[in-house]
Write a structure and sequence with these properties.
This protein is of the alpha+beta class. Among the domains are: about 170 residues, 2-Layer Sandwich (D-Amino Acid Oxidase, Chain A, domain 2), CATH 3.30.9; about 150 residues, Gyrase A, domain 2 (2-Layer Sandwich), CATH 3.30.1360.120; about 80 residues, Aminomethyltransferase beta-barrel domains (Alpha-Beta Plaits); about 90 residues, Aminomethyltransferase beta-barrel domains (Elongation Factor Tu (Ef-tu), domain 3, Beta Barrel), CATH 2.40.30.110. The protein is about 25% helix and about 30% strand. The strands form 9 sheets. Strands 7, 8, 9, 16, 17, 18, 19, 20, 21 and 22 form a 10-stranded mixed beta sheet that branches. A 6-stranded mixed beta sheet has the order 11-2-1-15-24-23. Helix 1 runs parallel beside helix 9. The longest helix is centred in the middle third of the chain and has 17 residues. The protein is globular and about 85 Å long. It starts with 5 loop residues before the first strand and ends in a 14-residue tail after the last strand. It binds flavin-adenine dinucleotide and (6S)-5,6,7,8-tetrahydrofolate. Flavin-adenine dinucleotide binds next to helix 1, strand 16, strand 22 and helix 9.
């Protein structure tokens, strides 16, 4: 038995890298097909100028880029380079951008890339074409540089071919052959190629290939302008034909521009123009491919370039005597959230995609896909790349088109981490939405849901806010998309009672005679408990990484309600479902709703409306019951992500508004308020509760994440158990640590680097002002040796904020409040 037969569709930088990564792992039955000629196929790679700026807000994307650099640096074609480490320079012409470059320098530090913010003089020393008077400074990353993408494809193809891979050009894929729910081959213009696994690396053509198996590929092809000048006197004689360039690659993001040298000419890329969506149907005809004529190159529209030319001449005065020589509108992929699309079809096993990937991230993504195929797991976590991360409504063509175009427009904008999209909005609302609006809810959006962040109606309570709960003023950046009203909402939650809309929390109903054993197999918890039990548990991957944290409620012998983290959980459970019909999985999120009713007065309030017994004796912590509240049938679960006495109250969507109204009316005498996500996030951090995807991912085991208590080691079998042999609280070398900011006022927001003994040692995951403890708090990945009491520093823009590792949880460590 050899390795599986793999067909890779597309011989661009992604397909070629994947062939290389798979053959490097010993898979030798790899066929790469491309509709275009080889090696210059006419895809986006064929004309990519190849700038590689590694630093990104996303740790995963930055790590992909770093791997691409490391890999390409060591490759050549007959002695000619594939990567030239020229360094990368991003300049600022506004104070806002300069500040943002400091923030970006922080990301670089967090993710392990060296970078420095330089003054204008130092920038000009590195890149003498820049007019020093135009800039305020720049971020310099010495390991950034130029990838010679088309040459790298040749190098990768040669290496793969030497290990047995076959590349076939002028072979257009026309269909995917299937049998028994699996791929069996690929139909092409040159006949059928049998396959056990098919990976579509078709770039912006991805939606066409996806459609062949009924798979949604949410990307939009957009044209983006790239032009070359004629000769620039200052560049003459500087660059050999082989070297091509000598100055750092350059970005001028305040005007959506980037630059590289082509010998004695300058290449200019711009995102300053209107988004130009491209219809795949219009492109398909062209067959001829040459360096300046290919399907992914559309004619240059000079009028769109004019403002960019103007701005370029301002920044780089040498251009004043120059002209634009050539230009084109090049096509590549944009997605609703800017991330790539990686994953296997939910319906046709063995059909995978790896699309919407830049040259910058290509080797990293390809390695991840190869690891998924060969080892079943990528070492770099992929939740922001998984094609199944999107909600159903986000797959609508109009949604994909609008949001992808918006991402084009915003590509170089300074974006606040909480900045909500402006449109489309109001896609999904809970039954409480009308009431929330009446209360002046300020909504943020996630997964298409409108989520109250705070309620302006609570502003009237600010005058009653006790001194010790009054938060210090924030700096302008951390004050954005925030309100001091959050303090009122936190205060009332801890001292009275608050209603939180938990409707967007993903809910799955897993039922059938096989449900209990499936959950037992997939989670770290004991599922065979009494009806009405609620279990906080983890789903791990085979390497013991945390795939999700869940609550599982046993509603009946064969019915469980799972509180999950998103679509990836649904996708995972569906794939793991036995094929014999013994388990059914239903996403009940949309048909139901949930109010988190939390605070010391929560029991008084519900009990006043119910003849069911909500007393501590008959309704214990982490138990669930069916009950009526003013006649409304609810499933009540006694748990609280904000760490207070109270219940999650679930009912069907039709009953939701009534449930809200009765609680609201009766709640008046108990001081009830509606509260939003800003308070929620602060309270959950004070209680030590982790947010999956932010605080921990598959890269972390439960002990590192501080979740070892949720692993039932006595259990004989569950996914991930073997990997945890010998692993425990005492063995881990890094840990999610709780930090408290020393000055009691400097709020950070997340992803900032943390320094230990003056050296970068980790990064912040979540952060908030802890209203109960009266100081900003944060969670951060740090060496396990950083015990409580250890002083650290958090880099916030260009300054260091002193903080201290503290024992957690900060609030109610004895569980007195929550178990009251
Ligand atoms: P492609 O290179 O497009 O490869 C996909 C292949 O699939 C094509 O060869 C195509 O022929 C083949 N294919 C499609 N359909 C079929 C079919 N039915 N049958 C057979 N084969 C098929 N990225 C950077 O990182 N840095 C940059 O500086 C940069 N600059 C850019 C500038 C411009 C003007 C443009 C347009 C893009 C730029 N990009 C840059 C983006 C980058 O070029 C792409 O993201 C990247 O090349 C995509 O690689 P790929 O392998 O996924 O796609
Ligand atoms: N509610 C429900 N399901 C959920 C969440 C929720 N699923 C996804 C996500 N949120 C899971 N996160 C948590 C985190 C902590 C707790 C619950 C859900 C929690 N932890 C107790 C603790 O650590 O003390 C567990 C105690 C125990 O195991 O007995 O309550 O918000 N429905």
């Amino acid at each position: 038995m050899g390795s599986p037969r793999v067909v890779i569709i597309g011989a661009g930088i992604v397909g070629a890298n994947l062939a290389d990564e798979l053959t490097a792992r010993g898979w030798d039955q790899i066929t790469v097909v491309d509709q275009g000629p080889l090696p210059l196929t006419g895809g986006s790679t064929s004309h990519a100028p190849g700038l590689v700026f590694q630093t990104n807000a996303s740790k995963t994307m930055t790590e992909f880029a770093r791997y691409t650099v490391e890999k390409f640096v060591g490759m050549d074609v007959d002695g000619e380079w594939c990567f030239s480490r020229l360094g990368g320079l991003e300049v600022a012409t506004t104070l806002e951008r300069l500040a943002d470059l400091h923030r970006k320098q922080g990301w670089a530090t967090s993710w392990g890339i060296e970078g420095t913010v330089l003054d204008p003089q130092e920038c000009v020393k590195l890149h003498p074409l820049i007019d020093e008077s135009q800039i305020l400074g720049g971020l310099y990353v010495p390991t950034d540089g130029l990838a010679k993408a088309s040459r790298a494809v040749v190098a990768l193809a040669r290496r793969s071919e030497a290990r047995g891979a076959v590349f076939r050009g002028l072979t257009k894929v026309t269909g995917i052959e299937q049998g028994n729910g699996r791929v069996t081959g690929v139909a092409t213009s040159n006949g059928v190629i049998p396959a056990d696994i098919v990976v579509s690396c078709a770039g912006f053509w991805g939606p066409n290939i996806g459609a062949m198996v009924g798979m949604n590929v949410p990307l939009l092809p957009l044209a983006h302008q790239y032009a070359k000048t004629d000769q620039i006197p200052e560049l003459v004689g500087r660059n050999s034909e082989l070297a091509e360039a000598g100055f750092p690659i350059l970005r001028h993001q305040d005007h959506d521009l980037y630059y590289r040298e082509h010998g004695d000419r300058l290449g200019i890329g711009t995102y300053a123009h209107r988004p130009m969506p491209v219809s795949l149907r219009d492109l398909e005809e062209s067959d001829a491919v040459s360096a300046c004529d290919m399907p992914s190159m559309l004619p240059f529209t000079g009028e769109d370039f004019a403002p960019s030319w103007e701005q370029s001449r301002r920044l780089l005065p040498s251009l004043e005597s120059a002209k634009i020589d050539t230009g084109f509108n090049g096509v590549f992929s944009f997605t609703p959230d800017g991330g790539p699309l990686v994953g296997e079809s939910a319906d046709v096993a063995g059909f995978w995609i790896a699309e919407a990937v830049w040259v910058t991230h290509s080797a990293g993504v390809a390695r991840a896909v190869a690891q998924l195929l060969v080892d079943g797991r990528s070492e770099i976590e992929l939740h922001g790349c998984d094609v199944h991360r999107f909600e159903e409504i986000q797959l609508a063509p109009d949604y994909v088109s609008e949001t992808s175009q918006q991402n084009f427009v915003e590509i170089y904008d300074v974006l606040h981490p909480l900045q909500p999209r402006v449109s489309p909005r109001n896609l999904r609302v809970s039954p409480f939405h009308a009431r929330q609006r009446e209360l002046g809810a300020v909504f943020l959006e996630s997964g298409g849901w409108e989520r109250p962040h705070w309620f302006e109606a609570n502003a009237s309570l600010l005058e009653y806010l006790p001194e010790e709960w009054t938060p210090p003023a924030r700096d302008a950046w951390s004050a954005k998309f925030h309100s001091p009203i959050a303090a009122v909402e936190a205060w009332r939650t801890r001292t009275a009672v608050a209603m939180y809309d938990m409707t967007p929390l993903r809910r799955l109903e897993i039922s059938g005679r096989g449900a209990s054993s499936l959950l037992d197999h997939l989670t770290t918890g004991k599922m065979d408990k009494s009806i009405g039990s609620v279990t906080y548990t983890l789903a791990l991957d085979h390497a013991g990484g945390v795939r999700s944290d869940l609550t599982v409620t046993r509603l009946s012998a064969d019915t469980f309600q799972v509180g999950a983290n998103g679509n990836l959980d649904l996708d995972y459970f569906r794939r793991q479902m036995p094929g014999d019909g013994s388990v059914q999985i239903r996403d009940i999120t949309g048909g139901t709703c949930c109010i988190g009713l939390w605070g010391p007065r929560a029991r008084d309030l519900v009990q006043a409306l119910s003849s069911d017994d909500f007393s501590n004796e008959s309704f214990k912590y982490f138990r669930s019951k069916n009950a009526r509240i003013a006649g409304v049938p609810v499933t009540a679960m006694r748990l609280s992500y904000v760490g207070e006495l109270g219940w999650e109250l679930y009912t069907s969507a039709d009953n939701g508004l009534r449930l809200w109204d009765v609680l609201w009316q009766e709640g008046h005498q108990y001081g009830v308020i509606a509260a939003g996500r800003a308070a929620f996030n602060s309270l959950r951090m004070e209680k030590g509760y982790r947010a999956w995807g932010t605080d921990m991912t598959t890269e972390h085991n439960p002990y590192e994440a501080g979740l070892g208590f949720a692993v039932r080691r006595q259990k004989e079998e569950f996914v991930g158990r073997m990997a945890l042999e010998g692993v425990g609280d005492a063995t881990v070398t890094r840990r999610l640590a709780c930090l408290r900011v020393d000055d009691g006022r400097s709020v950070v927001l997340g992803q900032e680097p943390v320094f230990l003994d003056g050296r970068p040692a980790g990064y912040v995951t979540s952060a908030a002002f802890g209203h109960t403890v009266g100081a900003p708090i944060a969670y951060a990945w740090l060496p396990a040796s950083a015990a409580p009491g250890t002083p650290v520093e958090i880099q916030y823009f260009d300054r260091r904020v002193a903080a201290t590792v503290v024992a957690e949880p900060l609030v109610d460590p004895e569980m007195k409040r929550i178990k009251a």
